[in-house]
Specification:
The complex is a heterodimer of chains A (194) and B (122). With 194 residues, chain A is an alpha/beta fold. Chain A is built from 4 helices and 8 strands; from the N terminus they run αββββαβββααβ. In chain A, a hairpin with a 3-residue loop joins β5 and β6. Chain A is elongated. Chain B has one domain: Nucleotidyltransferase, domain 5. In chain B, the strands form 2 sheets. In chain B, strands 1, 4, 5, 6, 7 and 8 form a 6-stranded mixed beta sheet that branches. Classes of the chains: A alpha/beta (194), B alpha/beta (122). The interface between A and B is large, with 34 and 40 residues.
């Protein structure tokens, strides 16, 4: 007897649908979460063998930002709200009117830009052990924002572009002109938190 | 792409001036927050804990943790190592200051305070 049966072909019509379904499933199910954060460089631990000489900074060159355990902010000797902090930091960094009470400037020769009066101002950030992390980040954020805006302004004046649009060398020059000077004091228990 | 089990719960604070963490291989994580599940709370209480790798640790362990993480990297990458601190927004600064001091002692100076990007407060 001759076998009349033919090998049946597999119906592959729905193959494309199945693969698309799989593709879409994996697209949706995969998370590629990118971590974002405020980046900082901590100061190195002072050598224990050698005594740390207290740094000499003129009063006009220092802005003290203190965050209490009740999340109140004091900057430059007065209690302020978080929304005022950025402007205060900006006027401190810029010192556009060369005020006697605001930081001194030092003429520094920088590549590309040339001579530029670099502010000697340092923002000193202090917090209590009881300060909430949220507030700390908000303050750090406002200070970073102040520096970024100043950098943007300088970049606009020198190169006619925003800081983020500059190329590597130009960016380095601006970073030298407006250094990110936020000092975090050695921790101490001021109001006796937990 | 697989991430370690998170034993603490945190809602990250939000900020506008955040930068992306490039090169995941250079990043080590320190998580700080309350124990996440009921069973863990029963065992450990609700005080904030520090999680390194996949268990609770104390600040004393950070030195060792940083050393082992640094060993995983190649010689040339070691200077680029970043520690990402993921802490709950409600944490008090005391514990974070302790962690920061330990990191300074361990000479891991590049840190990133994890925060979600927002366009502004209010």
């Amino acid at each position: 007897m001759i076998d009349k049966r033919k090998i049946q072909e597999i119906n592959a019509g729905s193959m494309a649908d199945i693969s698309f379904l799989l593709l879409i499933f994996f697209l949706v199910a995969t998370t590629m979460n990118v971590d974002t954060g405020i980046q900082r460089v901590l100061p190195p631990m002072p050598d224990e063998s050698q005594k740390q000489a207290p740094m000499d900074i003129k009063k006009r060159n220092l802005m003290l930002v203190f965050v209490s355990k009740f999340d109140h902010i004091m900057a430059g000797g007065e209690a302020i709200d978080i929304s005022q902090l950025k402007e205060k930091a900006k006027t401190f960094i810029l010192n556009a009117s060369n005020d006697e009470d605001l930081p001194e400037k030092e003429i520094v020769k920088i590549d590309i830009i040339g001579d530029y009066p670099v502010s000697k101002g340092v923002i000193s950030l202090q917090n209590d052990r009881g300060t909430s992390y949220n507030m700390y980040i908000m303050v750090q954020n406002e200070l970073t924002r102040a520096f970024n805006e100043v950098r943007d302004e300088v970049a606009q004046a020198k190169f006619g572009k925003k800081f983020t649009e500059l190329d590597e060398d130009q960016r380095k020059a601006i970073q030298k002109a407006v250094p990110l000077k936020i000092s975090e004091a050695e921790p101490r228990n001021i109001e006796g938190g937990e | 792409m697989r991430e370690q089990e998170v034993l603490v719960k945190f809602t990250l604070p939000s900020a506008t001036e955040v930068q992306k963490l490039e090169k995941k291989s250079l990043v080590s994580y320190i998580q700080i927050g309350q124990p996440s599940t009921k069973a863990l709370v029963a065992k450990w209480g609700t005080a904030p804990r520090i999680q390194l790798n996949d268990s609770y640790k104390t600040t004393q362990d950070i030195l060792e943790f940083v050393a082992s993480e640094r060993d995983k990297l190649s010689e040339s990458d070691r200077a680029q190592m970043t520690i990402c601190i993921k802490a709950d927004a409600m944490t008090r600064m005391g514990i974070i200051t302790d962690v920061k001091q330990e990191l300074r002692r361990a000479n891991a100076l590049k840190v990133s305070y994890a925060a979600a990007k927002t366009l502004g407060y209010e």
